[in-house]
Amino acid sequence: MMKNTPLARKLGAFVALSEAELSVLEGLHKRRRTFVAGRDLVHQGQSDQAAYILISGWACSYKLLEDGQRQIVDFQIPGDFLGLRRVVLHLSDHSVEPVTDIEVTEVHVSDLMKTFSDTPRLATAVLWAASRDEAMVVEHLINIGRREADVRVAHFLLELGARLTLVGLGSKTGYACPLTQYLLADALGLSSVHVNRVLRTLREAGMVTFRDGFVTFDDYDRLAEYAKFERTYLDQVGPLLA
Amino acid sequence: MMKNTPLARKLGAFVALSEAELSVLEGLHKRRRTFVAGRDLVHQGQSDQAAYILISGWACSYKLLEDGQRQIVDFQIPGDFLGLRRVVLHLSDHSVEPVTDIEVTEVHVSDLMKTFSDTPRLATAVLWAASRDEAMVVEHLINIGRREADVRVAHFLLELGARLTLVGLGSKTGYACPLTQYLLADALGLSSVHVNRVLRTLREAGMVTFRDGFVTFDDYDRLAEYAKFERTYLDQVGPLLA
């Protein structure tokens, strides 16, 4: 039984899915594949007709610019789609690389479109989740543009926590996090030395500790206040559509 | 009859809407309101339970940061929702200000949720459109971070053209555009003097002219090539869901 996949948990936060809808979702989880850390699975501009649902592990989507710079746009965690925008929105804008070894389900675009057509409530949930993820990306990028480094890092760690909590992989206590300081730096527009210094400051202030692959919220409420973190979507109780 | 609203045209690009669905959409267009240029209609952090559908005129969404800086996140054109994320995604992140006098339809969140629940295909179309718009915002912000000013302006003018074409207000020839160089500057992270200089360069190169409230594509294909503009979603023929 696959009805407790991260994707089902995530979509359940937006739309109360029926047994029938959960079965359809399960039907999408047929073709399992694994990819090793560091090898691209979606290339910028690629016209492949498949997207992936992340089952376990972490990935990152990034954009390579003409001058060779790399901007990490977002990290993907279990329950997230990889390459969804490319196949359904006809936007081929990112490359996706596994941060850890990952397990995914491959979904062909024709199967996905048929599912959307047959079960529009499921489509609503998927697009709702995608839209929320995009909104968070906007936050990241404003983050990079305008916030101080300390607040930027704090906000980022809180947001990852909120997303992981939604799929049962985190809480207000903390979460397991495989990101290196190099990856954090590429996502936040900071040097890794700077990231390291900020993390020490936040730890010494008794707010959050990132060490040995774990983020521990030492004082969640104070950190949230410090980062002016918008907690509304964390506090959401029950799905938005019955 | 309202079946030819900009919103109906826009959603029709994603989902082939039935007569019944078009009628439901029409039902949302009941409470007309007008707002004058320059006066906020959605305040950052406001907990109002209404969103708006833009019927005519242009608006911009922006974020004020603690230090008083203003970042324009996106412009809204007819057919776009204003404040949708705030009411359905529980993200209260932007303020919205009319760029011109605008006409909108006010939609209460309870009506919107009922519509989504009763006609999930309509919800799919709305979220699909929202998701595509978000994806474009991501492009803007990468734009700001990494592209040269000339390419940045060119890309921005092409993208606005693509969005306006979708709702019947633009073509590969050009479009009416009420934006000042100050607004362009705030959206693109440039000074207005710099925007002015870039526009002159692009005009003298015979690619695009922005003058007296009109953007004229003097050589659309060359401009698109110059800006590495991803035209896939422009070339889309027919809705994605039958």
> Which chain pair has the greatest contact?
A-B, 46 and 45 residues
Radius of gyration of chain A: 18 Å
State which percent range the strand residues of chain A make up: 15-25%
Number of strands of chain A: 10
Q: In the CATH classification, which architecture of the largest domain in chain A applies?
A: Sandwich
* Uncertain segments of chain A: none
> What strand line-up does the widest sheet of chain A have?
1-7-2-5
The total count of helices of chain A amounts to 10
Q: What portion of residues of chain A is helical? A: 40-55%
Amino-to-carboxy terminus distance of chain A: 23 Å
The CATH superfamily of the largest domain in chain A appears as Jelly Rolls
Please state the structural category of chain A. alpha+beta
Tell me the overall shape of chain A: globular
The CATH class name of the largest domain in chain A reads: Mainly Beta
**Pattern of helices and strands of chain A:** HHEEEEEHEEHHHEHHEEHH
Assembly context of the chains: homodimer
Indicate the mean pLDDT of chain A: 84
Short description:
The structure is a homodimer of 242-residue chains. Chain A is 45% helix and 20% strand.
What report would you give on this structure?
Two copies of one chain form a homodimer. With 242 residues, the first copy, chain A, is α+β, with helices and mostly antiparallel strands. Chain A is built from ten helices and ten strands. Chain A has a four-stranded antiparallel sheet. The first copy, chain A, has a three-stranded antiparallel sheet with strand order 4-3-6. In chain A, a hairpin with a 5-residue loop joins β3 and β4. Chain A is globular. Chains A and B meet through α4 and α5 of A and α4 and α5 of B.
